[in-house]
Design brief:
The structure holds 2 protein chains of 2 kinds. By secondary structure, chain A is of the alpha/beta class. Helix content of chain A is 32%, strand content 18%. Chain A has a single domain, classed as Peroxisomal Thiolase, Chain A, domain 1. Chain B starts with 15 loop residues before the first helix and ends in a 5-residue tail after the last strand. In chain B, strands 6-5-4-7-8 form a 5-stranded antiparallel sheet. In chain B, strands 2-1-3 form a 3-stranded antiparallel sheet. Classes of the chains: A alpha/beta, B mainly beta. The structure holds zinc ion.
Chain lengths: 379, 138
Amino acid sequence: MKPRSIAIVGAAETTELGKIPNASQIQLHADAALNAMADCGLGPKDIDGIACAAEWPTDLAHYLGITPTWVDGTMVGGCSFMIHLRHAAAAINEGLCTTVLITHGESGRSWIGSKAMGNNQASLGGQFEIPFGCLGPPTMFTIPVLRYMKDRGLTHEQLANVAVVQREWAGMNPRASFRDPITVQDVFDSKMIAYPFHILECCLVTDGGGALILTTAERAKDFPTKPVYVLGTGESVETPMISQMEDFTSSRAFKVSGAKAFNEAGICHGDVDHLMIYDAFAHLPIYGLEDLGFVKPGEAGDYIWERNTAPGGELPMNTNGGGLSYMHSGMYGMYALQESVRQMRGVAPAQIDGAKISVCHGVGGMFGASGTIVMTNEK
Amino acid sequence: MAVNPKTLPKPTPETQHFWDGAKAEQLLLQQCDACQHIYFPPRPFCPECASRKVSVIKASGKAVLYSYVINHRVPKWADGPYSIAVVQLEEGPRMMTNIVDVEQTPEALVLDMPVEVVFDAVSEDITLPKFRPAGGAS
Ligand SMILES: [Zn+2]
């Protein structure tokens, strides 16, 4: 896409986050959408493009009273929203629509009106992975990590430290689920989930939602909100089977998506003021930092240990507290995007002074998919 | 470990040979006749060059422990923490499995240790290929 041709003009999360026992999943989408429309002064009749995951765009369009000329139901897991944003930018530039609403809502904790993701026993994963006692992401997404630790020299302390640093950021965020400081020892003392992962190295399970509204950069100046311009975008997929990823120490989807976004944006790593890397588990920021090229393979554990991504560091990362401490409804990518938008608007609880470029990198499935968005507040 | 009856594999026309092989205590892979690429999981064409001319080959059953976790959230049908592992077969492909006949601890499960296939008949139709330390139980 053409850098700075598209702007995010509306952005909001659900009114509540965490445990929301009084709303179904589609209502979480709608609550976030209504908040995003109110944010930028639009109504459903002003929206002519809609994208969402976990619910059908058909359901959302009907529920919200939208008549779209463009729809996208791409569903590749938690980075679907980065990919929706990318597709929406292309669609607006192509003239397929003018104003796109992207929604996420997930009753991940209360399970109200959610579709259970059943095991397809005939799929390749259902035949060749699940029968070995896999019990969801904590027992699968984590499998490559011992290989990474041996090949790259990552220590258990460095892995635990990812959660420790993110809790520092969460402590600055009134909306974060967990805010009390933790130590590496606290992580080690927490319940073992799937060795080498303790519960504090695994994401939360919450209810919530978020929504974004995009239009042309030209129109953006007519809105009450500070425009956040889309500078570069990337997407890719690799495999639905964690056992079949090409390289256990690196994600191919991360590399392809990240390189595409950086090239499109025409930026180098030193230009990045703020970074979000989707952290369903503590190893993801480590893979992300390396696969996006911020550090060399094997350096990310030290880089985080040396407080480069912590408050006051050169590359503030996961400044909302991340999926480990802020919230994680199941498909966290939308919340990472929301934090990048807040940072670019200058309204984040842990605001990075003078931040001009934010990179927001998502994962889908278990290293199965990826989407990367580069944003800026400079026209 | 026992097996959850709700998560047994359902073979498809493309994978039936693998499960028939496992039942007969053979670990079967596929090899491309055109480019010789050996691959897993099963499909009736080569993922490297797209040739439909592929053959089923019998693997040696020798592998090394490539990576794993030890699941500590033990479900009702299991009898304690158990490993969920990926092994690298001598022929090249990797596959998910459990490492059996050995203590399910980080001390006993050492990356790159040699392992060999054993067959676990979990139902009348399904036999799962599992791996144990090479040379038998330790
Ligand atoms: Zn071939």
